[in-house]
């Protein structure tokens, strides 16, 4: 991040912090006015008891009908001191205070709604939630839509609250995400206090996304974020994205439970790693030739159960059968173990150093 963009971000954070301070100040002013109004109501009620010889309920009733300008007329001040008290305490102070309180309350509600939409609220009551830190630089709306939809469709995560901590939506999250109940805070996780404000210490899951998979320094930002989370002693399951595979061990040393490459087209991989840790490594290997990978072996098999096929392949150290192609060209995965299959090719999971047998040897394993 260059110095100019860093300065702009700091200025934005200072401006938003100023707005938050103004909101808190206005909230305190509203409380003071409410207390002053209660004091005025109490003083006027006491005055009506002493000057108008009313009981406490009648005095309070007269005070409230006068302050609200309702004026039923069933009870009214008749003495000079009672009328003077009403003029000074109600007409000059009470009605004015009540109008100010109503105006301030409406303004605070509008400000609070705006702050919530723009990510300026602290969700202190949120806990056991999924905290997503950072958003992708490219096509963020679409990726978040896919990711949140996948989370919502996963039974183990369907009811979990979701919060996003990012500087990239200062005017509010996309409407579709908000309609799914997602909230956010506008801020940078590497800024002091932001992780605590987002409840990182109370989260059940934390996902640290790579902000820009085309920029090598993104791993440094992720490392800084993970280190800050570690200082909070969070018990959350932490998943981090790494551009450079050499940084995986460093990420794990500072608290990441799982590390995955940024795969923007398949957020399902990320979600699976939350509910079934370790699967991210298996899924990643399927997309590269190093390590375990999938191959297709053309072989015609008839009348064998799927259990027989899987067992014979494992016994001869050929690989693990994941599925097969039937005579219609359909790929079948995880068939019933007792089902007799008609296959014209097999999809196998093998290791990169595994020596594959010839087709004749394969047929020999099945005594064909």
Strand content is 15-25%
**Gap between N and C termini:** 64 Å
Low-confidence stretches: 1-19
| Mean pLDDT across every amino acid position | 84
Structural class, judged by helices and strands? Answer: alpha/beta
Report the principal-axis shape: elongated
What is the count of helical runs? 12
Q: Order of SSEs, N→C? A: HHHEHEHEHEHEHEHHEHEEEH
- Order of neighbouring strands in the sheet with most strands: 3-2-1-4-5-6
Estimated radius of gyration: 33 Å
**What's the count of strands?**
10
**Helix proportion range:** 40-55%
Q: What does the largest sheet look like?
A: 6 strands, parallel
Describe the 3D structure:
- This protein has 12 helices and 10 strands.
- With 368 residues, the chain is an alpha/beta fold.
- The strands form 2 sheets. It has a 6-stranded parallel sheet with strand order 3-2-1-4-5-6, with helices on both faces.
- Helix 1 (3-51) packs antiparallel against helix 3 (80-117).
- 27% of the residues are buried.
List the main descriptive attributes of the protein structure presented here.
alpha/beta, 10 strands, disordered N terminus, 368 residues, six-stranded parallel sheet
SSE topology sketch:
Blueprint: H1 3-51, H2 56-67, H3 80-117, E1 130-133, H4 140-152, E2 162-166, H5 175-179, E3 183-186, H6 194-197, E4 205-208, H7 218-231, E5 237-241, H8 248-253, E6 258-260, H9 267-275, H10 279-285, E7 293-305, H11 306-315, E8 320-326, E9 331-333, E10 340-350, H12 359-365
Parallel strand pairs: 1-2, 1-4, 2-3, 4-5, 5-6
Antiparallel strand pairs: 7-10, 8-9, 8-10
């Amino acid at each position: 991040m260059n110095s100019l963009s860093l300065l702009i971000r700091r200025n934005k954070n200072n401006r938003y912090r100023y707005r938050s301070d103004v909101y808190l100040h206005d909230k305190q002013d509203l409380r003071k006015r409410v207390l002053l109004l209660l004091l005025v109501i109490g003083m006027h009620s006491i005055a009506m008891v002493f000057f108008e010889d009313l009981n406490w309920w009648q005095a309070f009733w007269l005070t409230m009908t006068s302050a609200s300008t309702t004026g039923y007329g069933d009870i009214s001040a008749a003495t000079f001191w009672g009328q003077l008290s009403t003029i000074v305490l109600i007409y000059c102070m009470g009605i004015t205070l009540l109008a100010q309180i109503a105006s301030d309350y409406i303004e605070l509600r509008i400000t609070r709604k705006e702050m919530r939409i723009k990510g300026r609220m602290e969700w202190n009551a949120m806990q056991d939630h999924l905290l997503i830190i950072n958003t992708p630089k490219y096509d963020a709306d679409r990726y978040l839509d896919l990711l949140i939809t996948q989370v919502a469709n996963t039974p183990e995560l369907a009811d979990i609250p979701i919060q996003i901590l990012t500087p990239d939506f200062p005017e509010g999250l996309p409407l579709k995400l908000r309609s799914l109940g997602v909230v956010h805070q506008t801020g940078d996780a590497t800024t002091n206090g932001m992780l605590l404000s987002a409840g990182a210490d109370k989260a059940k899951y934390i996902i640290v996304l790579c902000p820009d998979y085309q920029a090598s320094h993104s791993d440094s930002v992720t490392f800084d974020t993970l280190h800050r989370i570690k200082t909070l002693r969070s018990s959350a399951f932490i998943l981090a994205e790494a551009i450079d595979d050499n940084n995986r061990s460093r990420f794990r040393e500072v608290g990441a439970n799982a590390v995955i490459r940024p795969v923007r087209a398949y957020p399902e991989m990320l979600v699976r790693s939350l509910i079934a840790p370790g699967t991210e490594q298996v899924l990643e290997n399927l997309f590269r030739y190093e390590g375990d990978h999938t191959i297709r072996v053309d072989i015609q098999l008839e009348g064998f159960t799927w259990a027989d096929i899987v067992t014979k392949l494992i016994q001869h150290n050929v690989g693990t059968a994941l599925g097969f192609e039937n005579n219609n060209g359909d790929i079948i995965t995880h068939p019933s173990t007792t089902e007799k299959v008609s296959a014209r090719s097999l999809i196998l999971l093998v290791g990169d150093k595994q020596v594959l047998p010839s087709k004749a040897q394969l047929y020999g394993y099945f005594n064909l």
